[in-house]
Structure formats: structure tokens, C-alpha cells
Write a structure and sequence with these properties.
The chain has one domain. 58% of the residues lie in helices and 0% in strands. It has 14 helices and no strands. The structure holds zinc ion. Zinc ion (ZN) binds next to helix 4 and helix 6.
Length: 303
Amino acid sequence: MSKTEVAPVEGFLRQGLFYFLQPLLLVVVISSWYLDPIREQTYLLVIIFVQLVLGLSEQVFPARPAWSSNAKEKIRNVTLVVMLTISALMVTELYQVWLSEPLGAVRKSLGLNIWPHHWPLLVQLFMVFLLSELIWYWMHRAEHRWKLVWRLSAHGSHHSFKKLGALNFGLNHPLEYFFIVLPSFLVELTFGVGSAALGAAILTVSQTSIVHSNIVLNTRWIGLLLTTNRYHICHHSIVLSESNTNYGCSAILWDRLFGTFLDKTIDDAGTGPTEPTLWEKFLMPFKEPEGTTIAPVGSEVGL
Ligand SMILES: [Zn+2]
């Protein structure tokens, strides 16, 4: 087996995970929200639950054994994710203060009070999810297309890891949270969505954990609408033509529609041949590490 070769799906348990892990996890997290759609604590509980299930599965049945992290790396990543999740919650609070009033005013002046609150909650959830993902698709595509946006969002930090696992969902530069949490806010506040917004946030955060996981998962059927880890790992390739695909981190539908979908097993992940240090990752808004292969070089207009 070469350095990053994917393990075959053999044995009862591996096959069980292959076919059922992603759909079952999604059913569980959506149900946990649906039972009490306004309980905000569900969001953090779901993150912890999904991470535990995926972390255990990666430990026992890693897709790429070379990507399994040792105890020291795991502790470092968990610590970083906890700190960065706190940053994300702080950005969320800031947006709440900054955007609630102006977007509420926009809603009133443009007559955007059209959200179908009387429709089934699950339908509303998928509407918010897909609309937010549509905005994220173009923001993410812009990050990879324009050097200025790449630097401002420090998106290279997220791509710079050579090993991927479920925890990578939360390994983003603190600055990037100003980008990551924006789409759902725009949809929620522009249309005055209500409790479906929390459900969509829970679905999105679960999906982003699953798509980074180091487990072999099925892509058939589920991969028509939702992103699977095979598709998202392709986006983390060190090869530019493979990396500039699959921008939808939770829904793959928009890549399929806008012609950026790619289904391929990659040889290597990261931004270059070696992984930058934590300090170099932190400085990425100002300085690109040596040998970066996937950062945008131009600033010309056009996607
Ligand atoms: Zn990216």
C-alpha cells in the first residue's frame, strides 16, 4: 500500500460504516434538532457527538492509515478546535449585533417577508441549507480564484494540513470565520427564517465534519445532493486542477450545476510538499509558505 492509498472496504463493520455511517449520522442529528427546534444547545452537543463517532471510526477503520494522527497531534487538534469554535461563536455574536438591524430593514424595504413559515419544518431546513450553501459555494470559489480573497480569508491555513480527519472541519484561521458564518446569517436575517436556520446550521456543521473524515464512505445516491468525504478530500489535493473543484463543503449540488464537480482519488493533500508550522499557518494572510501549489497567483476578474 502506498503512502496515502485508500484501504479496501472489507469485512462486515467496514461495509456497515461505508453504507450507513453518513446517512445514519445525518438522520440522528436532524432528528435531535426536530424534537426541539429552538434548543440552541443542540448545536454544540451535535458537534461533540458527531466528532466522537467519527473519531472512533477513524481510529479503528482509517481509510488512509498514513493520515491517522498520534496522541500528541490529536490533543493539539482538539485544543485548536475548541479555541477556534469559541472564535466562531464570537464572530456569530458580532454578526448578530452588526447585521440584525440592517438586514431586517432590507427585508422590510424590499418586501422580502416571503419565507414560507407554514411549510413543513424539514422542507424549510433544506431550503435554508441549500441557499446558504449556494452563497458559500461562490465565496469559497472566490477564495480560490482571487489572491486578495485567499489572503483576507486565510483559506490556505485550512488547506495546509497534510493529514485529514473529522477534526479538520474546525481547523480554520480565526479570520476565516468571518467568511464561514456569513452565508447562513445572510439567509436567516434577510428572509427572517426562524428555527429552520438552527436545523440548517446543525446539518452543515455535521456535514463539514463528515466530509473531512478519514473513513471510506459511499458516494452513490447521497453524493448526488450532499458532499461526501471522497469529493471534499479531492478539493484538498495539492494538485491545483483537483483542488479547484468541489467547492460545496456540505452540498455538492451546486458544483454539479456549475461545472466544478470532480470525483477522483487524490495522491496527496495540503498546500505543498510539506506542512507549514502552526506559526506559518497563522501568518498566511501576510505570507504564503514556500512551495505552495494551490494558492491563486493572479488577481484578475473572472471565476
Ligand atoms: Zn478550499
